[in-house]
Specification:
mainly alpha, 77% helix, elongated
Length: 109
């Protein structure tokens, strides 16, 4: 409402709908790829590394949103989108750590 009253958007306010639909499309697409990558992360060596790369690309896609929405009136949108990439990187870190611990424990047996 504040942006509309300050003249940031045109009178009908339709211009914000295009980027918001882009966010929705990316969210749906990344969810599908995220579930796919999470399903493959505990497979063989090559498939595991491909899923790691896919997870990194999905997280970077969210983190890039900071630059896309980097203006004073829209920065909370960019921060909210980037906030979705951080848990993906956290999951990736935990999976890599789990795999290293598993590898070390099987070598010591």
């Amino acid at each position: 409402m504040r942006n509309q009253s300050n003249g940031v958007y045109p009178a009908d306010g339709d211009s914000i709908g295009i980027p918001l639909m882009g966010i929705m499309f990316y969210g749906i697409l990344s969810l599908a790829f995220l579930l796919f990558a999470m399903g493959l992360v505990r497979r063989g060596v090559v498939v595991r590394w491909l899923s790691y790369v896919l997870l990194v690309l999905i997280a970077l896609g969210y983190l890039v949103q900071i630059a896309d929405w980097a203006d004073a009136l829209h920065y909370p949108i960019g921060l909210a989108q980037a906030g979705l990439g951080i848990p993906i990187l956290g999951y990736l870190y935990l999976e890599i750590r789990r795999h290293r611990i598993k590898t070390r424990s099987t070598q010591n047996v």
